[in-house]
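seq as requested:
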Amino acid sequence: MIKKTLLIERDPHQTRVAVLENDRLAEVVLERHRQRGLVGNLYKGRVTRVLPGMQAAFVDCGLERDAFLYVSDAVTDDEASLDGRPERDAAAPGDEDDDDGDGDPEEAAASRPSIVDLLKQGQEIVVQVRKDPLAGKGARVSAHITLPSRYLVFLPGSAHLGISRRIQDETERVRLRAILAERKPSAAGLIARTEAEGRSSEDLAADAAFLESLWSGIERRATVARAPSLLHGDLGLALRAVRDLFGGDFDALWVDGEDLYEEVVEFLAHTQPELVARVRLDARETGLFQRFGVNQEIAAALESKVWLRSGGYLVINPTEALVAIDVNTGKYVGRDSLEETIFRTNMEAVREIVRQIRIRDLGGIIVIDLIDMEEPAHRETVFALLEAELERDRSRTRVLNISEFGLVELTRKRSRSDLLTQLAQSCPYCRGSGRVKSTGTVCLDLRREVLEHRGRSPRGGGLLVRAHPEVVAALEGEERAVLDELETRIGAKVLLRGDSQLHHEQFDVLDL
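struct tokens:
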């Protein structure tokens, strides 16, 4: 049984949410108040460009950049049904998919109309943000609206009924589907979320009525609003976390600050009153994240190397195209055979890899380079553990079996920037490459510059070289031959002056 704890910490500048599993950090989400996420927001936008070659369009929603709308997100509900089911609700990830068949993607793509048949430049359209702006790109939006509440997801204009994949009891699924069929509004679909399991028909009916009323208000605003404009903003991170994360499987919800505590209690009193008793107020000055060790875990998640308890380690390297994760035995030498050492390292690594993926919110293509295992049984056991660990991840993942080279490929959906992007920026020295020139290389660059400088200014006399202290130390030490050769070539003294304010690769050559 996993002990789960939810932490919510808010200050005047940001809100941070953490999920602990057995007192270890498993997920973290943060939201800067001046940079609130857009996922879940509804806008009345205007189509600015239609791109037949990409089967997509740009939509002005009043944001910094035009949003991007794919044809699959613009088709009507009847056309969308060709894809088997509507796309997962990005505003409440992890549990709203129905497990009915996906259909044939190639057949669906062939049957889908062209973007030019659906949208025209200047057309006004109601869209919902599915992905926050990432890496200089605008937000991704969809015309398929999904409004989540505690137990249900409301699908305006759809006929779809669905049950969360995480509800596996078939009797319960049949019961929930019957309730949804009875309570479904005439012009909308419904999906039962994981928290709907075991809930009464009255609870679900109240949720459906609330969502129907919410959508009616949005429709009224859409008829009078001028594009571009915001029609509906999702809850802030604190209450969104309570709605989407906190449930009966959590032992406690710790909240930092009395004002936030009262907000959370009031919200739960209307949605899940039986959970109010599990809310705890933390009034200590040290802060929740500091007391539970979350700050240290976040700092560690910004590093590329992650040590395992056995002495092995992971190297996590995000690139433009994918995330590469390498497993190494490191200091772990094992006790029995090499194969057993490798097997135990891979088993420990798989658990930590999934935890790091969740903490860092890594998305897209992820390639895991496990240590090669000879025994087929060991490979099967490691892969089974990986699948079991991924089951706890709220984001949708697809994983391929271990290849003959010991590689595991998986894809993971994400709707916001990963933790590293949110908390860090590209190094102004290396400009994001992770590398700067070695001291020896800088010394040789400096040599060429000195010779070129003397060629441009052949008046003789000594030279002054300002450089980083490490470069100066090298020229006076292991790279002394470079300095001696320069003084011989130019027939004059070269004076060195260290300046710690200079970039490691920067130097100046001046006449004395």
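Residues 36 and 117 are 34 Å apart (CA to CA).
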